[in-house]
Structures are given as C-alpha cells and as structure tokens.
Amino acid sequence: MNKPKYTIAITGLNNTDNPGPGVPVIRALRSAKSFDVRIIGLVYENLEPGIYMENVADKVYQIPYPSVGSEALLNRIEYVNSIENIDFLIPNFDAELFTFITSQTRLESLNIKSFLPTKQQFEEREKEKLVEFGEKYNIKVPKSKSLTSVNDVSKLRDDFDYPVLVKGKFYDAYIAYNSEQVIGHFNKISSKWGLPVIIQEFIKGTEVNVIALGDGRGNTIAAVPMRKQYITDKGKAWGGITLGDETMLDITHKLIKNTKWRGGMELELIKNNEGDYYLIEINPRIPAWVYLAVEAGQNIPEALIQLANGEDVAPFTKYDIGKMFVRYSYDLIADISQFEKLSITGEL
Amino acid sequence: MKLKNNIAISETGFVFDPNSGDSYSLNSIGKEILELIKSGKSKSDISFHILNTYDADEFTFERNYDDFIDMLKHHKLLENE
Prior knowledge:
The complex is a heterodimer of chains A (348) and B (81).
Chain A: E1 5-10, H1 22-30, E2 36-43, H2 49-52, E3 59-62, H3 70-84, E4 88-90, H4 94-101, H5 104-109, H6 119-124, H7 130-137, E5 144-147, H8 156-159, E6 164-167, E7 173-176, H9 179-193, E8 197-201, E9 206-215, E10 220-231, E11 237-242, H10 246-259, E12 262-271, E13 277-283, H11 290-295, H12 300-308, E14 324-326, H13 336-345
Parallel strand pairs in A: 1-2, 1-4, 2-3
Antiparallel strand pairs in A: 5-8, 6-7, 6-8, 9-10, 9-12, 10-11, 11-14, 12-13
Chain B: E1 8-9, E2 14-16, E3 23-25, H1 28-38, H2 43-53, H3 58-74
Antiparallel strand pairs in B: 1-2, 2-3
C-alpha cells in the first residue's frame, strides 16, 4: 500500500546543550510507519545545528522571532507555504506557541494543520498560575508566587523558607539560598524573558517527567514516564531512563482526562522521599527527549500528525521499561557557502 | 518481608528498579540472597542454605544479612509490610 507523503514544517532545530525538540521530532517522523515526510525546518538562528545535520531538514527557512510580532511570523509562514505547500506544522518553542495557537484560523485557511493545546489550556498551566491549576485539578504543586518588581523580594521571607527556585516565564530556573541571590536571578531572568519572575518552593526529591499526548477529548493517546539520570548545569537531561511508575501514569491520565488536553505535553514532577508527587511544570509541547519514547514503543510525533489529520488514533498500551538515552555532542563540519546562503537569502 | 515483584535481577547481579529507574550491582552472594528472598524464602531458610553452602558462622551471617535487608529497605526495594 502506498503511504502518503506529507510536508511538515518544524521549529526547534537548535540541538544545543539546551536542545529544542525539533531534531528528535524529525527523527521520529522519518521513522513513521504510516506516512513519508518532506521536512521543512523553520529556524530563528543561522547556527541552529539541525540546519547542517544530514537527513534532518530537506529545506530550511529562517523565520522572524515571535517578539518581532505575530504578523511578521505569519507572513513568513505564508511565504514558505506558497513555495512548499505545507501540510502540517509542529511548533516546538514555548515562546512561539501562543502565536500559533491564536492563529489557527489563518493557518487553516492556508491548509496547514496542527494539533496544539487550546488557548485556555495553554494559559491555565502557565507557571504563575500553577497553584490555581493544582487546586482546580487536585494535583499537589509547590507553593509559588509571581514577582513583578524586585522590591517584592524582601517580602518573600513571610511566605517561603530558603532555598527557593527562581524561574522565568518561559525558560530558566535557578536555586537561590537568600534574598541577594533571588535579586541576582530576578534581574538576569527578567531581562531575558520578561515579567513576571516566578518564585517556587523548593521540593527536595527526584525529578521525574512524563511525555504524553492527549487527543483533546480526554483520552491519553501516549504516555511514557522518565527519570533524568544526568542533569546539565542548565537543568536539562543528558541521560534518562523510562520508568514503570504506575502513579505517574495515573496522574497523567487523570490530568489529560480532566483538562481534555490537546496535543503533546511534558509533565515535570518531583517525587519526594515520602513518595508524594509534586507537579512543578507543564510544558505544552513535545519535549526534547521525545525520541526515547519513540524507541520505547510510542511514536508520539507520528500519532500527533495522525490526530492533526483528523484520524482516529488508538491509544498506545505499552512501552519498554528501562530504555535509556544518552546525549552526546559532535562537531559537524559545514561550509561557509551554506552559512552564506542562509544568511543572505534566509533559505537553505 | 517481600521483594517488590517488578524488581529485575540479572544473571550478572545487576538489579533494576523500574519504579525509580535506579540500578544496583550485587556480588555473587548478594545476588544469591536476593534471589532467595524473591523466591519467598524466610530468613531461617536463607541462613540454613548459606551456612551449609559456605564457610560462614551464624553470627557473621546474621550481621551481614541484617545490614543487607536495611539497605534494601533504604532503597525501597521491599514491599511495605
């Protein structure tokens, strides 16, 4: 039987020490059994490694940062679509998701399908709303507070014991042992990611994660729990292992059922010594370690494309426990002509 | 006392806890004792087996066995009783 061939546009080709999910998502799509792909890489920087990696993107286009404005980003997508005839779009950056979520109608008018959380789902799990989220969905979350001014730092002592976590709205998290350190991190984070900066109670325990896919009707199509075995100084997993933790799966199934989550997600949890789980964050997209789940038996990007295509997708029922990933760094050799072409024309 | 039933023990003495993702290495005696625990043998059964197989006295066995069990508890490898 002939498989359909889809043109899929993907962002997040920054396979650096703080990797975007683009490259592993592409790897998963290239191993999909139900379709073939032509991959269009959408990149912000001309040194994103995925641009130069072999068998990753068939064509690359530079796109403007979301901070330039959604109109510029969408105009560029429109231009790329006029050449490539994109079937599906998988955005992989938190910072661009809002633009794509709120531009669904325009994307649909271009015949570009995606499978993203709703605006409400995206907004209610934002870091500064985590406490309300925990109460609404009956999940333990650490105490959190949003700071919009450095003057509020002195009042933290009333509500928190040190250490605390200082987190950016989209990325970055630092541990602070006193108010001076909070101020330092506040300034660093707010200049990079804007306000608010979130202060979160530090829960001592093991960080565990679940990658999952919801069909938007309350069904969990895929879910694989993982424990980070090695964490970089940026807090990113450099190695991880799939777990057979039924409690984590139960938390995920309930959350997806109650929120009717649509699309990929990553739950970040802390398991403390008493065996209690605290939800510390929900990333509303596929995480960078997705390929572990694929090799464990759940090709989440393939299932996401099938959902975006309006197909009925049966939930995965199993995965391999004890499957591991280890990241590595590797020097790609590129030619200045590739860099030149991308810099001058915005295409490669 | 019961070992959690999903704990995997390999031929080489490598132990994997799928709930936590933790893994441990056992020497041959540790592996033998853990397998006996997994098969449901009591402390006296295990003591009888070890003292009749190896050149060990009861006091040494008791001390090392209790340490070993404490370690299994510490790493949450035993079912709660």
